[in-house]
Design brief:
The structure holds 2 protein chains of 2 kinds.
Chain A lengths: L1 H29 L3 H26 L5 H10 L1 H13 L5
Helix pairs in contact in A: 1-2, 2-3, 2-4
Chain B lengths: L2 H20 L6 H21 L1 H5 L4 E8 L4 E7 L1 H24 L6 H20 L3 H19 L6 H32 L4 H6 L1 H6 L3 H15 L8 H4 L5 H10 L1 H16 L3 H23 L4 H21 L3 H32 L15 H15 L5 H13 L7 H29 L16 H19 L1 H4 L1 H12 L16 H26 L12 H24 L4 H22 L14 H20 L4 H21 L3 H22 L16 H29 L8 H12 L4 H9 L1 H23 L12 H12 L7 H5 L2 H24 L7 H19 L1 H7 L4 H21 L11 E4 L3 E4 L2 H29 L9 H7 L1
Helix pairs in contact in B: 1-2, 1-5, 2-4, 2-5, 4-5, 4-12, 4-16, 4-20, 4-22, 5-6, 6-7, 7-10, 10-13, 10-14, 12-16, 13-15, 13-16, 14-15, 14-19, 15-16, 15-19, 16-17, 16-18, 16-20, 16-22, 17-19, 17-20, 18-20, 18-23, 19-23, 25-29, 26-27, 27-28, 28-36, 30-31, 31-32, 32-38, 32-39, 35-36, 36-37, ...
Classes of the chains: A mainly alpha, B mainly alpha.
Keywords (chain A): Antiport, Cell membrane, Ion transport, Membrane, Transmembrane, Transmembrane helix, Transport
Subcellular location (chain A): Cell membrane
Family (chain A): Belongs to the CPA3 antiporters (TC 2.A.63) subunit F family.
Chain lengths: 93, 972
């Protein structure tokens, strides 16, 4: 029973996370401002990190958490770089 | 010491000596000479002591596998012919080394001279002793390259540079021809082994590829031996120091061509095609060389043309297809080397002592240097073919062959006349040399006061001239047996009966000799006054200069033709290049589609996984968006690219490749930052707002490009779809999956493949990565940004202005306030990320991770510090030396690879073991992990180096690129 609940909840979570990714992607594509795109891009990263976690839960191994850890630890680097670029016109000064 | 070892040492000794000689200090003239003399003397002793083994009749052989799968082996083979030649090369080499001690001035770079000289001797011995045709070509090319260095030894002189370049171009082209010819022979015979080739003469001669093969081989031989029409490089190569000429242009370099012809004569010779090709080239070189030699003013020029003529004689003898001709050819190769080497050295002495080689300026030197003069006279007499000297013997043999009929044709009928006329010319130029230099009036205005050279400088000539005399008087006793084993090793069972006697009775050849001697002497008497004042070069042919034609051709090929091709076919526009590339690959891919019918494989399209499909919709949307925005909105395109990248990474996870996903994610992140860094320096671009009113041609062009791109993309899709719906053939991946743990000691198959099974590939790849990083570094040192990016960005100017304007703010406050909290977090993350990188690295052998991923993660840590606090702040506190990281990485990886040699395994064999550490527990300790450490270090170094050079652009004072206004408009 609990297995069934898990399966269903993971499936629903995945669909919802993908929907979140899709919405974020739409914002990235449409903009209108660069700041909107950067924020949406960060959201896309977070959603994909969670998607990876659900994927690990579904397959029952911890092997996939590695990738989620990479996003969690370093995913913000590109966001910061983009933010810096928008604010100052260059990334490292 | 057995004979195989001696054979190996004979090749290795000169090269080892060359390396040693290069290390001496520049002024150690005597020590250099001692070392070089010992090396060459060692080579003489080695070849001499191989005689008993060779004299048994079976060649001495040494075979070391090199690339066995390609039929290549490092095989050395010494038979009688090779023995004779190696004696010739080593003995004359030894004598020239002694001579050079006195010839070269203390100001010359002596180590360079001896190093190249010995290396050349090694390469020449390599040609002689190669038992494999490909190996022979390798040594052949080596002689071309080293002779370039030797001819251009005085590189400060323009004529030396030109002569060196010309000889390299001509002999290099010939070497390529030879390589192609050898490949053809190998194709016909099925082996490159010299013995196998020598055994299949009939097969080669009857093969349809025979004619192309001999044309190509002869191209190599003719260019090397300076045969007509490739003869003109040799006189220009006389800009070399005289010892080099004495060695290269008498006994070695130019002899390589005729050596090869004689070597392959039993298999290639004897046909009508061979006769015409070699006969024509030989006869033309013989006659023209002798004719041109008469009219040279430079002594060395005279000797160079005489060399062309004598080599022509040898070629002509080899063209005849008669065994007696081959005997005469081999004998003449020997004789020519002895007298020509001594003559070159004599010319060097004259030049050295009097300061000029111009025969119109010289004269009357006999009284000042009687010994040298006598020696030179004897050697020239041998060159002219005077009886009782060695040149006479082989010339008699040549005459005897010339009057025989071999292949009924004009060439054959003309042969006796050509022979007599050329010999008469030889007599003329020999007399001219002697008379003009040593007799007549002594000129008053010589650059130096001539006198006899030191004894040791004369000694090599004395020995060689003695050899000319002894061979000339008692040939059978002195060289008879040596010549015989050489002849037998070339001709085998066809060895004819020949006699080396001086006196054969009153024969036709003797009559021809007498005619040539008298005719030549008469010709000189007639020409004497003309020659004393004439201008350089022979009459009638003066205007027709091979050199000039060569230069015209070079200018045409390398300049005009290249420019023409560039102007008509080339473009500097990226769009056109891409269009061409895509179009060509489209056509190339479409042909097999069309010919063998496109069809899908057997696999049914499975049920669509809805979440996966949704994921891909997102990815595709991002990718298409990125392509759409790439031209005018680079930042947007970059963000969209990031979106597509993350979707790719999730796909990897979805399809069970977590290690790939980890690596790809790290690469995505670091690449995004690196591209952002570069974005700052790209020239700005504005979208043409009046897109609707773009000219019709622009619209058409864009439409066509879109069409091409769409078709290419569709084709790629169809192609991959067709491939993926087929069962994969039994690939190597199964092997890797099975063997990864038991042989590589790791469970992460990808990592084991990278650092163990394919370790050598990885080694190459990281080397390339290091080179790329250094190239980026080097390019950025001279970086000139586009003029519109040279100022600091607009945002910074506005913020700085605001800071200035407002009284409650200090300058630079905006930037220091900006991202304050994230900055602190980023700084604190530094150790965390390092731990994460260490974690990725250590578990890489069994689980996702590895040196590459760890290296990228580590460089992300550095990037964060630069982002958080700026270049100046970081570099005040942290000394990162990325170039050292790169070097260390390569060193570690290389040492681990070499380490396995110590234990007797091939390069990069890994050893694996688990060790139990307290607290940490059991960790894998394969040597591959050390290799991985090298990878890690290099990746960190390379990435950080690129990052730093980018970052430094912002704090440098930059100069704008010089772009003319028209170019800017064009770009915009």
């Amino acid at each position: 029973m609990s297995g069934l609940i898990l399966t269903w909840s993971v499936a629903i979570a995945q669909i919802l996370l993908l929907a979140a990714m899709a919405i974020a992607a739409i914002r990235v594509i449409r903009g209108p401002r660069a700041q909107d795109r950067v924020l949406a891009f960060d959201a896309l990263y977070i959603a994909s990190m969670l998607l990876l976690l659900t994927f690990g839960i579904r397959s029952g191994t911890t092997m996939y958490f590695e990738a989620a850890l990479v996003i969690g630890l370093l995913g913000f680097v590109s966001t910061v770089a983009l933010a810096k670029f928008l604010m100052r016109g260059e990334v490292i000064e | 010491m057995n004979s195989e070892t001696m054979l190996m040492m004979l090749i290795a000794l000169p090269f080892a000596g060359a390396c040693l000689a290069a290390l001496f200090p520049p002024n150690a003239r005597n020590a250099e000479t001692w070392a070089a003399a010992l090396v060459t003397l060692g080579a003489v002793v080695l070849s001499a002591s191989l005689f008993p083994a060779v004299a048994t009749g079976t060649p001495v052989r040494l075979n070391i596998e090199w690339l066995p799968t390609l039929g290549l082996s490092f095989s050395l083979r010494m038979d009688g012919f090779a023995w004779l030649f190696s004696m010739l090369v080593t003995c004359i080499g030894f004598l020239v080394v002694i001579y050079s001690r006195y010839y070269m001035s203390p100001d010359d770079a002596i180590p360079r001279f001896y190093a190249f000289f010995l290396a050349f001797m090694g390469a020449m011995l390599g040609i002689i002793l190669s038992g494999n045709l490909i190996l022979l070509v390798v040594f052949w090319e080596l002689t071309s390259i080293i002779s370039f260095m030797l001819i251009g030894y005085w590189y400060q002189k323009a004529d030396a540079r030109d002569g060196a370049r010309m000889s390299l171009t001509i002999t290099g082209v010939g070497g390529l021809g030879l390589l192609a010819g050898v490949l053809l022979i190998g194709h016909i015979v099925g082996s490159y082994d010299l013995d196998a080739v020598l055994d299949s003469g009939d097969l080669i001669r009857s093969h349809p590829l025979y004619v192309p093969a001999i044309c190509l081989v002869l191209l190599g031989a003719f260019t090397k031996s300076a045969q007509f029409p490739f003869h003109f490089w040799l006189p220009n190569a006389m800009a070399a120091p005289t010892p080099v000429s004495a060695f290269l242009h008498s006994a070695t370099m130019v002899k390589a061509g005729v050596f090869l012809m004689a070597r392959l004569w039993p298999v290639l010779g004897g046909t009508y095609e061979w006769f015409w090709l070699t006969g024509f080239a030989g006869a033309a070189s013989l006659l023209l060389g002798a004719y041109f030699a008469i009219f040279q003013r430079d002594i060395k020029g005279l000797l160079a043309y005489s060399t062309i003529s004598h080599l022509g004689l040898i070629t002509l003898l080899l063209s005849l297809g008669s065994p007696l001709g081959a005997v005469a050819a081999i004998f003449h190769m020997m004789n020519h080397a002895t007298f020509k080497a001594s003559l070159f050295m004599a010319a060097g002495i004259i030049d050295h002592e009097s300061g000029t080689r111009d025969m119109q300026k010289l004269g009357g030197l006999f009284k000042l240097m009687p010994y040298t003069a006598t020696l030179a006279m004897v050697a020239s007499a041998a060159m002219a073919g005077v009886p009782l000297l060695n040149g006479f013997l082989s010339k008699e043999m040549f005459f005897a062959e010339a009057i025989e009929t071999h292949a009924d044709s004009i060439l054959d009928t003309a042969a006796p006349y050509v022979a007599v006329i050329a010999s008469a010319f030889a007599v003329t130029y020999s007399i001219r040399f002697i008379h003009a230099v040593f007799f007549g009036e002594r000129p008053a205005d010589l650059p130096r006061e001539p006198h006899e050279p030191p004894f040791l400088m004369r000694l090599p000539i004395q020995l060689l001239v003695l050899a000319c005399l002894v061979i000339g008087i008692i040939p059978a006793i002195t060289v008879g047996s040596f010549l015989h084993i050489a002849v037998v090793s070339v001709l085998g069972a066809d060895t004819p009966a020949y006699s080396l006697a001086v006196w054969h009775g009153l024969t036709v050849p003797l009559g021809m000799s007498v005619i040539a001697l008298i005719g030549g002497a008469l010709l000189y008497v007639l020409l004497r006054h003309y020659l004393a004042h004439c201008e350089e070069g022979p009459p009638y042919f003066r205007r027709l200069k091979g050199q000039r034609i060569f230069e015209r051709v070079l200018v045409f090929v390398s300049w005009r033709f290249a420019r023409l091709v560039e102007a008509t076919l080339g473009t500097r526009r990226m769009q056109q290049q891409l269009r061409l590339l895509v179009a060509v690959s489209l056509v190339a891919a479409a042909i097999p589609f069309y010919n063998s019918n496109f069809g899908l494989g057997l696999f049914e399209l499975g049920q669509i996984d809805i979440p996966f499909a949704l994921l891909w919709v997102i990815g595709i949307a991002c990718a298409v968006g990125a392509a759409h925005q790439a031209k005018f909105h680079r930042l947007v395109a970059l963000i969209l690219l990031g979106g597509a990248g993350v979707v790719t990474c999730i796909t990897f996870v979805w399809l069970s490749a977590p290690d790939l996903a980890v690596t790809q994610l790290l690469v995505e992140i670091v690449t995004a930052v690196l591209i952002l860094l570069g974005l700052r320096w790209l020239p700005k671009r504005w979208e043409d707002t009046e897109l609707g009113r773009a000219p019709i041609s622009t619209k058409l062009r864009r439409g066509r490009d879109l069409l091409v791109a769409a078709v290419a993309g569709l084709g790629m899709t169809l192609l991959s779809y067709a491939v993926m719906t087929r069962p994969s053939p039994d690939t190597i991946s199964g092997f890797f999956l099975r063997k990864a743990y038991e042989e590589g000691g790791g469970r992460n198959v990808v990592n084991v493949i990278l650092v163990d099974f394919r370790g050598f590939d990885t080694f190459g790849e990281i080397t390339v990565l290091g080179i790329v990083a250094l190239t980026v570094f080097a390019l950025f040192r001279r970086f000139r940004p586009a003029p519109d990016t040279i100022e600091s960005p607009e945002q910074q100017r506005i913020q700085a202005a605001t800071d200035e304007e407002r009284s409650d703010r200090i300058t630079g406050q905006t930037v220091s306030d900006y991202l304050l909290v994230p900055s602190v977090i980023m700084q604190w993350l530094f150790p965390v990320i390092i731990v994460f990188a260490a974690y990725l690295f250590l578990r890489g052998h069994d689980l996702p991770g590895g040196g590459f991923a760890a290296g990228v993660a580590m460089s992300a840590a550095f990037i964060l510090q630069y982002l958080a606090a700026g270049t100046v702040w970081v570099e005040d506190r942290l000394r990162i030396l990325p170039v050292n990281w790169i070097g260390l990485g390569l060193l570690i990886a290389g040492c681990v690879g070499i380490g396995s040699w110590v234990f007797g395994y091939p390069f990069l064999t890994s050893y694996s073991q688990y060790i139990d550490l307290p607290v940490i527990g059991e960790i894998p300790a394969a040597t591959a992990i050390l290799f991985d450490l090298g990878v890690f270090s290099l990746v960190v170094g390379a990435t950080v180096l690129m990052l730093i050079v980018f970052a430094h652009q912002s704090i440098r004072r930059l100069r704008a690129a010089k772009i003319s206004t028209t170019t800017i408009e064009e770009v915009a």
